[in-house]
Amino acid sequence: MATPQKIVLRVHIATDVAMKLTLNERPKSVEELKSIMKEKFKPKLNSDFDLQYEDPDFDGQLSVLVDMEELPEKGTLKVVRAECDESSTASSDTDILPHAPLTLRQKSWPDSFPVPTFSFEVEHVLEEGNRSGKPLILSRAQKHNILEKMAETMHSFKPYPNDKEVGKAAEALVTVHPCLRELGSDTGWYGWKVSLKFKMGNFRSKLARSGCAEVSVNVGKRSKNNPDSDHPHSSIKRARLSEVNFLPNFPKGENQDTLKDVRLQIVQELEKAERNQVLIAKLMQTSFALRRQDIVKEDLPVKDILTSWPALRMESQVFAEFHRITNVNLRNQFYSELDRCTPRLIALLRQKALHTGKMALALRKLLETYDRQEENDVNTRRTLFLRALPIYLREDASEFFKTYNVSSVTSIYQLRLIQFSQHVIK
């Protein structure tokens, strides 16, 4: 019987914060390792994150951990948070990701809904009810407090939760407080789900009257005073997919006129020969709410948006804008998913290369070049698939990829990144 493999790791969980992790045996998967780390370092790791390790095949450069067999017995890990994290907000001199200010939403809808803490009276009543194990009959004020707190928590994730998400919130409520389970209901929480739906509607109405932009944008639908307007439930402007900050309010002390001046500042800075990247990033962060109004309220075409906001043509600001809207680091997320799928994708390319035709011939040339490499590190694997993808999709990528001469490269790191691409071109 093989002796369990002991693992000793130095884990950087934040900037200038490193902790030691000793494991008696190697975890079977990266997800299992993440679960162990969340339990070990609780509450410091209470959100989604990816792991990078110092790759000995790449002179200690960081690579995304996708296979536990790649992790040395004694190594260093870096935690890359999926949401706003200081350690991952600036991956290069020109890639400047913003920190979401307190006025912006910080998280998307969670897999497990966190039931909030209610008033002292309600918490006491619920504690007694849970202890007795009997269904609880609430007063009107107590139920109002529960629904109000639940609505506030739901809105902290999104103002327009769908039917499934409201159901998950109701289910979480009766799971944490079994005394609230409804008798005679198949689920035990259907009535709470209906009540939460109505409460969210009332909560949005109050927010709209107070001037909250992401819900007031839908005010003014058909009514007695506006009989010719759209139906109240048609063309609702709401966050889609993973959008977290859909339509934020203007920052404190700013209005439409001052933010338009900020936009002109950005345009003027981009006209300079030497651009101040830090200033551009700061101004783009400040003017985010105005930009979202142009997109959501005015519904401007992409061409007009790029004319008004030329900084969005910069790679660093594409990453930053994505981060502002979704609170996800686009670069890290992309490479993490790419590295996770690469082994299966390369196997698919090899299978297609066995066929006949122009596509198969081009794929064979790529794979032959890949197989001739002395070291097939993570960057080589990424390059192989990204170069093969347009071939597989039968698209022209001649104007998409950039190529360089080895003689013009001064950095060994740069050389390794482009070496495979040069072989492909030859």
TrEMBL record:
Q: According to the lineage, what is the superkingdom?
A: Eukaryota
Which PANTHER family is this protein grouped with? Answer: SI:CH211-196P9.1-RELATED (PTHR31025), SI:CH73-42K18.1-RELATED (PTHR31025:SF19)
Identify this protein by name. Uncharacterized LOC111193936
Species of the source: Astyanax mexicanus (Blind cave fish)
Top-down, what is the taxonomic lineage of the species of origin? Eukaryota, Metazoa, Chordata, Craniata, Vertebrata
